[in-house]
Design a protein that fits this description.
With 291 residues, the chain is an alpha/beta fold. Helix content is 30%, strand content 16%. It has 2 domains: 179 residues, Aspartate Aminotransferase, domain 2 (3-Layer(aba) Sandwich); 96 residues, Aspartate Aminotransferase, domain 1 (Alpha-Beta Complex), CATH 3.90.1150.10. It has 7 helices and 10 strands. The strands form 2 sheets. The chain has a 6-stranded mixed beta sheet with strand order 2-1-3-4-5-6, with helices on both faces. Strand 3, helix 3 and strand 4 form a beta-alpha-beta unit. Helix 5 packs parallel to helix 7. It is globular, with a radius of gyration of 21 Å.
């Protein structure tokens, strides 16, 4: 955020339900006269159009999560990217809730910057994130942290002989998280073995089973969008009897891990789980809810 040149009166369009990491960096630019425009996309008839309508001639950047962290609502990135490219608005995507679960196409969707932590769907370790920055934009975003790893040959320790790195590695100033890289590399090997399409098919089968089963239980409601194009790997469940935190704790006693987020119970089954696992999860949640 601070590596770009901003002017008073510029604005950034985002959603009102971003994870703090994708809010704080942009909100901090208010001191430079930059306006942050949050849009409640879940109240809109069309989420993408609501974001587009919030833009004007002073919009410099659109910052969104490809999948919302609370309920799994999935945006159509191609539509947003096309408008951003046409209006010369930078398109920033936080993909942590999608990368490793469903296919993403950075170039096709005109994404200028894509970021994602590696510890969720990619099954890496905490403390390591991925960042993809378009080649043209790398000449615009200035590195704010300086260190020995940001040069073309980081092992040339004579400062007078160092040359600037032009790839996105120019933003990596310090010693990398080597253990995290090893863990992520092992995980990516599994993706190469099975294929991302196969992974996405497995995840969609899991979420479909949860939606179809839990959506028919009295007192439970599927809070996630159920349109196929809006579904992700996350299924959020609401209850008219129990607080989501109470449901989370009750499922733990069944050795089932879920998480309470935004007043909902968030379920995120991965590709290594299957039909029997989903049946066990549904049976346990129904038992907990009806006792």
């Amino acid at each position: 955020a601070r590596g770009l040149s901003w002017h008073s009166g510029d604005n950034i369009v985002t959603t009102s339900s971003e994870f703090p990491s994708n809010h704080l960096a942009w909100a901090a630019l208010k001191r430079h006269g930059v306006e942050l425009r949050p849009v409640d996309i879940r109240l809109a008839d069309n989420a993408e159009q609501a974001l587009i309508q919030a833009m004007d001639q002073r919009t410099r950047l659109l910052a969104v999560s490809s999948v919302q962290w609370t309920d799994g609502f999935r945006l159509e990135l191609g539509q947003l990217g096309e408008v951003c490219r046409r209006r010369q608005v930078l398109f920033f995507v936080d993909a942590i809730q999608e990368l490793g679960a469903l296919p993403l196409a950075v170039e096709r969707d005109h994404i200028d910057v894509l970021v994602a932590g590696s510890h969720k769907w990619q099954m890496g370790a905490e403390g390591l994130a991925l960042c993809c920055i378009g080649e043209a934009l790398r000449q615009t975003i200035q590195p704010l942290k300086l260190g020995w790893r940001m040069f073309r040959d980081p092992f040339e320790f004579d400062p007078t002989k160092q040359s600037e790195e032009t790839s996105a590695r120019r933003y990596e100033s310090g010693t990398p998280n080597t253990l995290g890289q090893i863990a992520l590399n092992a995980s990516l090997g599994l993706y190469e073995q099975w294929g991302t399409d196969w992974v996405a098919t497995r995840i969609r089968a899991n979420t479909n089973q949860l939606i179809e089963t839990l959506g028919t239980v009295a007192g439970l409601r599927v809070a996630s969008a159920t349109e196929p194009e809006r579904r992700s790997g996350i299924v959020a469940i609401g209850s008219d009897r129990y607080d989501s935190s109470a449901l989370e704790q009750a499922l733990r006693k069944h050795r089932i891990m879920s998480v309470a987020r935004g007043g909902l119970l968030r379920l995120s089954p991965h590709y290594y789980q299957g039909e029997q696992d989903m049946s066990r999860l549904c049976d346990a949640l129904i038992e907990v809810h009806t006792r």
